[in-house]
Amino acid sequence: MEFLLEINVEEMPLAHVRTALADLSERLRRDLAAARIPCRDLRTFSTTRRLILTAFLAPGQDERDELVTGPPKSAAFAADGTPTKAALGFARSKGVDVSRLQIVTTEKGEYVGVRRTVKGRPAADLLAEAIPSIITSLSFPKMMRWGTGTLRFSRPIRGLLCLLGGAVVPFSLDGLVSGSRTTGHKLHAPDGIEVGSFEDYRAKLRERLVVIDAAERKAAILDRIAGLTGPRAAELYPDPELLDELVNDIESPFVVMGSFPEEFLRLPLEVLSTAMREGQKLFSVVREGKQLPLFLGVADVTGDPKGFIRAGNERVLKARLADARFFWEQDLKAGFQKRAPLLEEVVFQEKLGSYADKAGRLQKIAAYLRGKVGGCAAAKEMNLAAALCKVDLVTDMVREFPSLQGTMGGLYARAEGLPETVARAVAEHYLPVTVDDSSPESPEGAVLSLADKLDSIVGVVGLGIQTTGSSDPFGLRRNAQGVCKIILDRKISLSFSRFVEKAVSAYGDKIKRPKSEIVDQLQEFFAGRLRYLLEREGLRYDLINAALGAGLDDMYGAAQRARALDALKNGPQFEPLILMAKRVNNILSGQTAPAVDPDRFVEKAERELYATFTIIRDNVAPMIAGGDFVQAQKIVFRLHPALNAFFDKVMVMTEEMKLRRNRLALLQAIRKTLLQIADYSQVVVEGEKPAK
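Request: output the structure for the sequence above.
Response:
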């Protein structure tokens, strides 16, 4: 049977819509599974005013046999088999004759029981109970109440449509009663609509200027944009975030093109596109990467026959661009480098000083990192970039458009004729902002970004400020994610502990916590961020754990170990080595031993294992040092036959203590070498219970 649910709401933030749709579908799947209602083809649709879910459900639960246990056999029947009052009462309570009772063997002994057929409940009845509960369980970062009701939701709910097989699923929620009606476009077709199925719902909404499929709305917007830009040999300046916002904000998209005076083309493209986007949600139009005096807007209307929308946007945009031009000219006139002393007046953090103090720390951290990242500019240029990277925070342009921080610093540095390496490092040092952003392209930008992000993290952690739950008010997770991403993207091998220590030292006496405490806390914290990135690559959690278990001080090395395990995991030699390594680990649990003494070996198998191991150890050492963990593991695979023979023919835990200690020492040396590649005990093999 076809199921359709629409929650009609006042305009919700896009992030709330996505959260609600994901939670709504997940909770409905869970409740249907618990209720034994098969569900298939579940789909969700949305605008910022509608949460829509459709699926095909079974009409109801299947009948099922149920075994109900009663009193113990000893209490239900006398010694001669006569039913007691306990048996008679149990049978009566279940509506059956005592002769239908049977003996059931359980873990606690023998009991009497009865099998009965339980009729399934209709899906409509179960949905009527589940849907209100699911809706009230949805949670948002900010919630509100309205009217005299008690329901809390992202925005006020104005209607509930719920159908199963074309019939209304009846329920009420905070004074609202479910039905078979919805409404069309809020401006052009706000009247109620009666619907009987999903296709009927979709078609009638389309007639009333509501397109429920976001992919269809996006295609319509892009098609109309292409129709306007194509004849001009132009194209949309890429702004995926704005496009995504508009696709989800508008139910019936109409694209309008407008223009602005060419005198504003003297402004950088980054400034023009930001001034258009922020406030007015307009797109820039470019040809071969250069701004044209045109813009594109998307409105939730059927058309603009009299040009009011175009003219209104042109009027507002002209004023905004005039302001932007004023800021640009004033900032150039004031001078970029000359504004650096103003950072002393901008507080970075109350106990950590000003942004001028931060710039000084970045110079020290960048000087350390410069030698770790290949291809960096001269020390003088790197030092200048670190000193200037935060100066645009005190410019008029960034005060008006904060999203341009970094970008404006790079533009002003170029305008003053500073080296391109300096300008680019300043422009890139905030990247990546999100996990989907690109890392800085220049080595100088990478160095400055790493320094900036770790400085912020160390400052907060050094003060002992704790962040809990999903909130990240100081951007610790975001910055740590950025550090890990840059290290992986640029293949940077460095000592994480030394990196942290340098950042702590740069704070001087502002941080009182011992360096070792901060290093330990941040290693655990960064392990979680690195694990997340590797899981996004599709690596198994146990392989990641094995790689990280071998050490995290070199994060790029840890990632390479995980990737090597993933590359070899399906080979015939992989699992036998894992099982053998686990055996070594189990034998050594709680054991200690001195160094291996080859002269104490008495069995041929242990001498051969030692000889094989030393050759392998010496061969893999340069591979491990060079980060070639795939080849190192392939060499280590060759250890398996000798190790297998050793376990078959040698008693490790012999009564002769000198022999035992020497054999344990041999296994200990083998484990030490294996741990330079991975902690194989963390790898889960078939039939083994996973343990995250």
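The chain has 25 helices and 18 strands.
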